[in-house]
Design goal:
With 637 residues, this protein is mainly α. 71% of the residues lie in helices and 1% in strands. The chain is built from 23 helices and two strands.
Length: 637
């Protein structure tokens, strides 16, 4: 293929990364620098995951070529005498071995080392130097580029100062011991330190994901459980939504006071106008009317520093307000859908009924493929079986990962399940199986780790919210985590399949990725100690996650979590159920009013309006009743 597989993977991974960024980020409103940094970081990390199986198959092929090279058979003195006496040739015999078949995804020599070097060092530059600066830059409330740069440098002074101190210490050590520590060894020490930090966090996230992902799919097969948990989320989200609205109102009061006190001929007016552009439209209009009706009362003039602080709080308050409203709307739609599923389960008509016509997507897929009958069979019959089967398969994969993490250091005998499978495929030179096994294994590890990164929430500072609602700080923080977690995850995977000599202690060709990492034997207490025994902690973390110890601890300190046998959870569920009932009544009234209005327009529009349709409403013909009558009849049925 001569690198064609590498090119295809590069394009596919870019499209996947762009889709994720479009789902979580706002491509139209967020700063281009933030979007580019996040896209590049995610892209490089995902690229490592997808290219590594090709590196493994290419390395196995090179090992096959090395093993099958014609090696002269050594001739001992005794055998030399015997060969002379029998008149045989004095030349050594040559062993004839089978030839190696080149894999379909073979990448020519010289490409992967350069590729890994560019990808790895670019991601490390992003995560340790550029992204922390960009985080502070994006959160800054300064009104100029120079002001934002100054704020970012000040906030990261300690961060960068620590790096300079470590670097200066190493330089002094190199100058004092020029023969003991070379630049290559210094580079390896830096890589090992970064991977050690990443492995420490990796095991924590992996221990949670290995249990939570199979369990979430198993529980998702039960609509009753999902509905109860949705009620719980609705109660919590209603509280967060009210707090966000109150916070936004308080901040807008301060903006209104500043807007009234700073007149248009003041030198700080440009700063005030910049703040006003970040406010919601209804608040801007209200402030404009209030200023026109004011009697020119002069308030205390703000300083530029106070305006910078206010600007920062306005951005945060508006972002949080938009997040809660979008999440609330999505949560209400999800609750309505789950309630419809519960009603359809008890229906013998085998026909899925939506509570609101606006919930039905009037597309050709729903009209011809995903019909109400097909939807009923999926939601009420097949979905449960599919999710439970998937949960069982994921549970088996999790068990294999936990066993292999606890036994991968054993090479005689080989106990790691992933190493056993790869070695069996290697004996047959089945490169397709090798690549598929590597891809599925490392993809599962990445899903367990990355999904945890997408789920975790640090108050309101870090929270990845879909539907374009994630703020710039959270996007860049996730990019930093990905860049720090992916290299140790790949090294851990190579250790599981015994292709990292620092772990397996085998004399064989190393992958190009491992060669970039350098020899870990330079720090034996890490390669022979921490890298081997620390991953065993996954077993304890899996047990803690299985018994919800983390959720119970958070619940005790006031961060309410969904725990089925907790009284406070029951109170939240009851509160959420009442909130959803209230939203259902409001939506029903709104839809009935819109249907009556649309029916009246259709009747009074004459022949020119006949045949018009509207998304979310019933089409009226001459022989049909009004949509309201149809809804009532379907409700009785």
């Amino acid at each position: 293929m001569s690198g064609a597989a590498l090119a295809v993977v590069v394009v596919v991974v870019f499209l996947l990364t762009f889709y994720l960024l479009q789902r979580y980020g706002d491509l139209r409103r967020q700063q281009r620098m933030v979007l580019f940094g996040t896209l590049l970081s995610w892209y490089l990390c995902f690229l490592i995951v997808f290219i590594l199986p090709l590196d493994v198959s290419t390395t196995i092929y090179k090992q096959c070529i090395l093993d099958n090279e014609p090696h002269p058979t050594p001739v001992t003195p005794a055998r030399h005498i015997n060969q002379t006496e029998t008149g045989s040739s004095l030349h050594p015999t040559v062993s004839v071995l089978k030839s190696c078949e080149e894999p379909w995804s073979y990448i020519p020599d010289g490409i992967l080392p350069v590729f890994w070097r560019v990808v790895y060092w670019t991601s490390q530059f992003l995560t340790w130097l550029l992204l922390p600066f960009m985080q502070s830059y994006a959160r800054s409330g300064a009104f100029s580029t120079a002001g934002k740069n100054k704020t970012a440098l000040i906030e990261n002074a300690i961060y960068y100062g620590t790096y300079l101190l470590i670097f200066a210490t190493l330089l002094i050590y190199v100058a004092a011991h020029p023969n003991q520590l070379t630049w290559t060894k210094l580079q390896t020490i830096g890589i090992t330190a970064a991977n050690t930090w990443g492995l420490f966090l990796l095991v924590l996230l992996l221990g949670y994901g290995l249990v939570e992902i199979p369990r979430s799919y198993w529980l998702s097969s039960c609509p009753g459980y999902l509905l109860t948990k949705t009620y719980f989320k609705a109660a919590k989200m209603a509280t967060e939504k009210a707090a966000a609205e109150e916070n936004l109102a308080d901040v807008m009061e301060e903006v209104a006071a500043v807007h009234e006190s700073v007149r248009y001929n003041h030198h700080l007016r440009k700063c005030v106008d910049t703040i006003l552009t970040k406010c919601p439209t209804d608040y801007q209009e209200k402030m404009g009317r209030d200023v026109e009706s004011s009697h020119g009362d002069q308030n205390v003039l703000p300083t530029e520093r106070s305006l910078v602080s206010l600007h920062k709080r306005v951005i945060s308050a508006v972002q949080r307000h938009n997040q809660t409203h979008v999440q609330w709307s999505i949560l209400v739609d999800e609750a309505f859908h789950l309630e419809d599923v519960a009603k359809s389960l008890s229906s013998s008509a085998h026909h899925f009924i939506h509570s609101f016509s606006s919930a039905q997507q009037h597309s050709w897929i729903r009209r011809f493929i995903y019909t109400p009958t097909v939807e009923w069979y999926w939601e009420c019959v097949f979905r449960r079986c599919f999710y439970r089967l998937l949960a069982v398969l994921l549970c088996l994969l999790s068990a294999a990962v936990v066993w292999s993490e606890c036994t991968f250091f054993s090479t005689h005998p080989v106990l790691s399940l992933f190493a056993i499978f790869i070695q069996m495929a290697e004996k047959q030179y089945n490169y397709i199986c090798i690549e598929m096994a590597c891809f599925v294994s490392i993809l599962f590890l990445c899903v367990c780790v990355y999904s945890t990164v997408f789920r975790i929430r640090f108050f309101n500072y870090y929270y990845l919210v879909p539907h374009h609602q994630t703020d710039a700080y959270s996007l860049q923080f996730s990019a930093m985590l990905f860049c720090r977690l992916t290299p140790p995850l790949c090294l851990n995977f190579l250790g599981l399949i015994h292709m990292d000599s620092a772990i397996s202690h085998q004399d064989r060709i190393q992958t190009s990725y491992t060669s970039i990492m350098g020899s870990m034997h330079l720090l034996s207490f890490i390669s022979d100690g921490f890298y081997i025994y620390y991953p065993m902690l996954i077993l304890l973390l899996c047990l803690a996650t299985f018994y919800n110890l983390g959720s119970r601890c958070l619940n005790l300190v006031g961060f309410h979590q969904y725990i089925t046998d907790d009284d406070l959870t029951s109170d939240f569920v009851d509160e959420g159920k009442e909130l959803i009932k209230r939203e259902r009544r409001k939506r029903q009234k709104t839809e009935d009013a819109e249907n009556r209005r649309w029916a009246w327009r259709e009747r009074c529009g004459g022949q020119g309006a006949t045949g018009r349709t509207r998304a979310g409403y019933t089409k009226l013909e001459n022989n049909q009743n009004s949509p309201v009558t149809e809804i009532k009849r379907s409700g009785r049925d």
